[in-house]
Every structure is written in structure tokens, then in C-alpha cells.
Amino acid sequence: MSSKRFNSLPSDTKVIPADVIEKLISIVKKNCTTKFEESIDLNLQINNKQKKNEINLRTIVNLPSGTGKKIKVAVVCEDNKLQESKDAGADITGGDDFIEKIKNGNLDFEKLICTPGMMIKLSKLGKILGPKGLMPNPKLGSVTNDLKKAISDAKSGQVEIKNDKDGNIGLSLGKKSFSDDKLLKNFNIIFETLEREKGNHKVKGELIKNAFLTSTMGVSYKIKLPKNI
Questions:
Q1: Of 229, 227, 224, 228, which is closest to residue 22 (Cα–Cα)?
Q2: Domain that holds residue 16
Q3: Could you write out the DSSP letters of every residue in 91-106?
């Protein structure tokens, strides 16, 4: 049964013509009528079925306005780097003992960073970390000796862009409390990253088929894309 709150939201937004992101941000924020602070979310459908191969995007982007979320960061490193990782703001840090805890199912973190020297040991836990998207990856900056930068990036608004098998990508642009300008800056950097990925993957035609803006408990609006990406 639908709530009074949900019934008060606009209906049939799917039939509304696509509009530019600058207009939609304020509309979606007005629909955030729950008692908690909702996220402003971006949902994309990409053209991942190419003639010669299937595209699987996986990259990171540092959102200039952050995400508004507190990320619990864990670090696996050598003993001589434990203090460095703590000083850099890691919430959990450890070596062989921590790897053993992960092996036993202790996954009380949202981002895992590992030094190259410890990655050989950690890689054996692929069946545990992989399905949850927690396995560190050097291409995504989470296997590194520069722990200070990796931890700072993770906590200040770094998000991963990754499509599922059907070509869907879900990302948060920030919170309702963010100014429209801050949300717009995050949107723009995401699309700059996608445009770069389109070139890297040599995509024929458009990469983005559809884009929608919504909030955690709101309704969805189709976005008129800034250009053919």
C-alpha cells in the first residue's frame, strides 16, 4: 500500500520529456519529503553491447563536492606502515591478523586499501572480497604504498563507476542538503569521466543510452544529456 507521502509525489514522470540537469536537480530536491536526508541519485543505462565486444566500465572519480557519506576505510599493510595508516585516518588497520579476520567474515568496512607487498596474501580471499566489490585493485588506486592519498581520496568523495551485466550504473551525486551547484559539479565530473572512458573503449555510437535523476525515496526524471556521450 502506498503512503500518503508517496501519493503526493508527481505521477507518471516517465512520460515527461527529458530535461536538462540544471532544472531537474531543484525538482528532485523538492520531492525529498521524508524525515531523513535523502541522497540525490544518478542512474545510467549504457550501450555495453558492442559488435565486437561487451563493454565493462570500471573506473573511479573524485567528486569535487564529496558524497556527504562517511566511508569506513580499512587498510592491510606491513607493521611499519600501521601508524602511518592510522595517522592518515584509516578506521581499521592491520596486517596478517587483520587478513585472518577478513577470512573469518569480518567485513565491517566499506573500502579496503592494501599495500603491494601484502596484496599476495590478500588476493587469496578473492571469493570473500570479490562478490562484495571490496577487493583492492591497483588500477583503482586501492593497491598502493601512498596510503595517505588513498585514504584521503576514499574519505573525501571518491566513487567507483561500474556497470552491471545489463549495462546499468547507479551513483549518488550527494545529499539533498547540497547546493544545486555542488550537485551539478559532481554530475559534470562524472560525465567528463564517462566521455574519457568512451574514447578508451573505442565505443561506436553513444555510450549512454538513458540517464535518470531521482532521490532515495522519490520518483525518477529522464535527463537530457549535455552532449552525445
A1: 224
A2: 12-67+159-222
A3: SEEESHHHHHHHHTT-
Which of 156, 177, 201 is at the close of a domain?
A: 156
Residues belonging to the chain: 229
Instruction: Put the strands of the sheet holding 208-215 in their side by side order.
Output: 168-175, 39-46, 208-215, 221-222
> CA 172, 149, 198 angle in degrees (round to 5)?
50
Q: Look at residue 112 and give its three-state secondary structure.
A: strand
Q: What is the pTM of this model?
A: 0.88
Residues facing 212 on adjacent strands = 43, 222
DSSP designation for 142? -
Where do we find the cell 587483520? 98
Q: Using one digit for the tens of pLDDT, what is the confidence trace for 10-59?
A: 666 777 899 999 999 999 999 999 999 999 999 999 988 877 778 899 99
